[in-house]
Specification:
39-stranded antiparallel sheet; lipopolysaccharide transport protein A fold; 7 helices; single chain; mainly beta
Length: 660
Amino acid sequence: MFAQILAIAAVALTVNPSQPADTTGREGRLVRLISAESAQLIERGGVNYRKVNGPAQFLHNNTYILCDSAIWNVEQNIVDAVGNVQVIQEGTALYSDRIHYIADSSLAQVRGTLVQLVDKERNTLRTHYLDFHTKDSIARFFKGGSMMNDKGNTIESTDGVYESKIKRFRFLHNVEMKADSTILKADSLAYLTEERKALFLGRTHIWQDTVYLRAHGGWYERDSEKYLFSDKAYILTGKQELWADAVFYDRKKEEAELFDNIQIVDTVQKAMFFADYGKYTKEPFSVILTKNPSSAYYSFNEDLSDTLYLSADTLRYFTKPMNELDSSFVANAKERLIQSRKDPMQTLMAALPKSANVTPEKSSLGGPPPAKGSVAPAADTSATATDTTTVRFALAYNKVRIFRGDMQALADSLTFNSIDSVARMYRDPVMWNEGSQFTSDSIQFVLSGNKLTKAELSSSAYYISKEDSLYYNQIKSTDMIGFFRENKLHRFDALGGASLLFFLAEDSVITTMNQKECKFLTAAIDSGKLQRVKYFDNIKSDIYPIVKLEKGKDKLKGFRWRGDERPVTRRDVCNRDIVTTERDSVVLIVKPLFPNTKRFFPEPKAKKNQPSNTPPAKSNMAAEATLSAPDTAQKKQTGKPGLPVKNSDETATLKREKQR
């Protein structure tokens, strides 16, 4: 009888729901028993405890602790609560089988078959081991845990921290995340619950459908599906590889903004791109590069010395299906392709009367005759409306520079499309091939399989070949065409009023200059030197001894040798170090297996009468949790106040796993 009176008195002294808890001084350190079915004093080992039978509710640091029963050490200020335990603080709720609450340290050591934390945004964290600091509102879990949001997306790790005041989770060690079609693994990761934003705190691997991404820092916004990858970012697709110091990526638009030390490799188009700023679109492929941009076009069957490097102030590279292009543009490009395969020299020679003046002449070096041109194919008249062939475009603006093993060029701008495979250079262009220099108002390169086959010089065309340190062989005409084999000039035609100067040597000493004029000519070239020249129509020829040559007569009008502008190595055009492909090593990276998620959020087994093709609804205790302070007036209601309805099947599964 006396014990019951003491128990009732103890409850009466500690219950005052209308008065807020004092969190300062001695009153602030005391735990308050708000309600209980009964409480009695017991003694164990010389220590007095209060045995509280519930449903019971305690209050400390504005935090409610609910349980079925508890042992309360009042002297040491410790509560051991068991049975349907809840710890509720503002928008955060904890659920477990038992807790050990050390009030002086404001520490709730939460343990159980299933420890569950639910925040205001309905994110549910599950683990077996969790410490909650009620004063700082910080929870720490360890030995494995997994969090699931209201959409079924998960993040798991070995250890982690939840900071309730700033709404942030930090997942540490062996982090794995799944969000829709995105899976991720990382060293560590933070998640801002209100913003639904993940922060990468270390090396991070991401897989999205067929795309792989890697970085050492950055963030991911779940709702917008936008990413920032910082610190050695890397992206791999089925067709491209991309490296940069930082990448901002919009997955919905499949667009990226790239920053510093950029390298993009397109294996289908056999091209590489470099810059310190760029914009990238996955499909259809498009790249715009600025800030020291350059590119390289290569072939798997070629050596590095055959790779063509190109740089300018701005580079743009993109692809479009044929049927999305203007029909007149396609028709004009196809016509240019046909014309580029014709040999104008054969047409001119066929038009000459049999009595025309034709003079073949061989230089002092000798050599083979010029090769015959190919026959042009018939025009393609097929409709393009349903033609989905991918057309490649390359544009370069301002200060264009080109380097290939035995060919270099400069211009103000350049355009290219893969319909006619013609690269056009504008505004004061110049091209060098071995010992030869070509200039004109515009220069067109005709390419076949990344190999140079023809160079067309339009208007004010000028060819210069350095004979020695003093004299230059020169040809000037309205238009010129150079023909290439294996990227080497082997034939050269001057069309439309040709003027020529070349120098002859005796015993390796230049003694004579020959000046000629004709309507057109064709010449064989070897190692940049004139070998054999054939002149056509209205031929004039004069020979001058070098010793009697007047000053200035050794140059044709408009002579301009630009050898000091010529790129000497590829680093004069592209000074970037080429990063080795990582494609093979990425395949070996083990994708996330989500062991903690499988342990704490097991898929419910389908019932025997349930069709196998109909997935059962997911069980989520978070959806049933009550996050507000409990109502003491409901303490006698069935089911216990503030407690979620337990899923017995799920709990049983977790218990069996823990026993194993």
